[in-house]
């Protein structure tokens, strides 16, 4: 698919520094301008779904404040949840090993929240926000396998301490739902929502 900086005539900005999200957009022919949000990732939401929707909204709004009218801004946030508890992103191999140990041989959920803003200028925009959930099943892992992966460097700063598109693919038993959602951006739902947003001329204005 030929790459373009526009989505149906609108320049696209990705409010994320994730190389995986950038690559996913490029997979469907969109070359987005990368403008990572610097907002603090805090929320009072009490569910994983509520959390990712709120954070994606905040990231998109922060970046949209500096964008020209007509720009499409995409904000996203992904979390891994086990028994409805968010695991977060490990900062050390030791913490990564603990997370992987809790996940191995079990099912868990990956939630990605996405907010798309169509900038109108003067702080106004049209918006859509949604969340996708994918169930992921893992094979049992030995302690040696857990430690080797944790010390590889790959799980650091990744939600749930793993990347499904990397070495951890060896331990994925199956998924139920959108694979790209686990990577970090549910492409099919995103395309559907953006098309609807533009077709409906943006839905509701927000001040």
Automatic annotation (TrEMBL):
Keyword Kinase among UniProt keywords: no
Active site: 77 (proton acceptor)
EC nos: 3.6.1.9
Cofactor(s) it depends on: a divalent metal cation
Keyword Acetylation: no
Site label Important for substrate specificity, positions: 20, 78, 165
Residues in coiled coil: none
Keywords: Cytoplasm, Hydrolase, Nucleotide metabolism
Top-level taxon: Bacteria
Catalytic activity: UTP + H2O = UMP + diphosphate + H(+); dTTP + H2O = dTMP + diphosphate + H(+)
Major localization class: cytoplasm
Subcellular location(s) of the protein: Cytoplasm
Family that this chain belongs to: Belongs to the Maf family. YhdE subfamily.
The protein's role, per its UniProt record: Nucleoside triphosphate pyrophosphatase that hydrolyzes dTTP and UTP. May have a dual role in cell division arrest and in preventing the incorporation of modified nucleotides into cellular nucleic acids.
Protein name: dTTP/UTP pyrophosphatase
Species lineage: Bacteria, Bacillati, Bacillota, Clostridia, Lachnospirales
